[in-house]
Write a structure and sequence with these properties.
The protein is about 25% helix and about 40% strand. The protein has about 180 residues and is of the alpha/beta class. The strands form 2 sheets. The protein has a 6-stranded mixed β-sheet. The chain has a 5-stranded mixed β-sheet with strand order 2-1-8-9-10, with helices on one face. α1 (about 35-50) crosses α4. InterPro entries: Restrct_endonuc-II-like (IPR011335), YaeQ (IPR009822), YaeQ_sf (IPR038590). It holds the Pfam family YaeQ. This is YaeQ family protein.
Length: about 180
């Protein structure tokens, strides 16, 4: 018997002072059985960092040919493709060829630096690719917030992110690698 996704209801209040985006969202996220709490919260963080009209969560882990989030225009062109993790160069090349802009958020305890060192020279070929590294301790702290009903306030200013609940404040500083 196959396991079903866990449905998460998220109330998100976003104040992005860098891009002048101030909005409240009621989101429903499906957490795939193999998706960690850390990855789920990074998806939510990526949504906040790139929030725009038309940004959508995709099938994610359930579909090999889709990113985690994307913005598709009315003319069905992919405007923004958002990846998570440490994908191989082929996947990033495919994303860069299909989309106007690609953003990758890397995460993990000890493997980000190794991945970056291995792939860095080839990735500079992709002019529409931006890569951000997320601190392991910060993303683990975010994972501790997972609940079926999450209420978050996310504030973004000068590239720094503060994620707040009624009882917790977590600072995340995405480091831009390229």
């Amino acid at each position: 018997m196959a396991l079903k996704s866990t449905i998460m209801k998220v109330q998100l209040s976003l104040s992005d002072m860098d891009r002048h985006v101030y909005q409240d969202f009621s989101l429903t996220l499906a957490q795939h059985p193999s998706e960690t709490d850390q990855r789920l919260m990074i998806r939510l963080l990526a949504f906040a960092l790139n929030s725009c009209d038309g940004l959508e969560f995709t099938k994610g882990l359930s579909a090999d040919d889709e990113p985690e989030l994307w913005h598709v225009s009315y003319s069905e062109e992919i405007e923004l493709w958002i990846e998570l993790g440490l994908p191989d160069e082929k996947r990033l090349k495919k994303a860069c060829n299909k989309s106007k802009k690609v953003v990758l958020y890397t995460y993990g305890e000890n493997n980000q630096a190794i991945w970056w060192q291995k792939h860095q020279p080839k990735l500079y070929e992709f002019k529409n690719l931006s890569i951000f590294s997320l601190d392991y301790a910060a993303t683990q702290a975010l994972a501790a917030l997972v609940d079926r009903g999450i209420k978050l306030a996310i504030t973004i200013q000068d590239g720094e992110v503060w994620v707040n609940t009624d009882t917790t404040n977590i600072e995340v500083k995405p480091l831009q690698l390229m």
